[in-house]
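RETRY 2/3 - previous attempt timed out on the joint model. Re-submitting the same 355-residue input unchanged.
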Amino acid sequence: MRSINQKSLLSVFLLLASPFLRAQEIKLPPDVEKLSSTAKETVEVKMDGPMLRWASKFLSAEDPDEQKAAKLVQSLKSIYVRNFEFDKEGAYSSAEVQTLRSQFSPPEWSRVVGVRSERDGENVDVYFRLENEKMAGIVIISAEPKELTFVNIVGPIEVDQLADLGGEFGIPRLKTKPSSNRVAKVEKGDHK
Amino acid sequence: MRSLRVLIIVLCSSAMAFAGEPEFHGLVRSIETTYGVHHMRIPLLGVALFFARPAGAHGLRLAVFEGFKTPMDSDEVRHVIESSLGTGWYPFVRVHSKGQADGETTLIYASPDGQNMRMMIVNLEPSEAQIIEVNLRDRDIKKWLKEPGEEAQGSSGHRREMD
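RETRY 2/3 succeeded.
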């Protein structure tokens, strides 16, 4: 009887907790989602907590960069990457990207950095979310003329740790500092 | 012909294993019963895989469904796959490429287990589907974790066909 009650309590807890667990998932707006039908290729990569903890074992202990990434990944809850690749430029509109960006507005989200490259036509925005005054997640939106990438990292991660994860798990390497041969504008966003 | 192409791609892609796992058979049965198709018998497939397997390989399973009508909504197939695989399998990569007809979709699920990673790759084409189970080891796992999208494109043949 006692075990049944414990199981019932656990079930009730899981049912009650599930909306909060789901709340961390970010749905792409329908306007962005429909880009799958026009994109030459759409890639979606998803890694949840148990898989991330397991995956961290395969990052080399001898490579200092991978070691940093491994430590970081162990505490993350999930990594989600969605990439759209198009045949030609102008396949998606700036309004569609703006719809995506508008999901990450204050007070829940703050934009920490925005890179606008007039030469490459590459726009990168990085947003972060605080939960009880602790970093709880980062979103990257990278819009290039023929490519649109969305990355959602859930868990405790600082913006300057993003570089450690670049190139792992399908996360693009992020250049938050414009190189000298690019005409770029770096905007410091709403970082408090 | 397409089956042969898939087989060659799989053999050339990485080190794979030869383990008999119930999830593979369960998934094949689920696809057969849900969509009213039967997987093809490929003569001497086991022998071919035994002799052609790369060094260190110890497992690979393949089922090909010809005449498979891919549903418009790939979420429906995802539901069938996830219900069949059950716990311990995680959605890992999904690739969709625009093709001549309705394009091609590849759904990859992973089951990490110690130093191995089992993967179930379901490739959906307009009139054919393939299920491939592979067992990856250290070096190949690292490659998949580093660039999952690139590896998925390579193993399913998406990128090869487009280039």
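Residues 2-23 of chain A form the longest helix (22 residues). Closing ticket.
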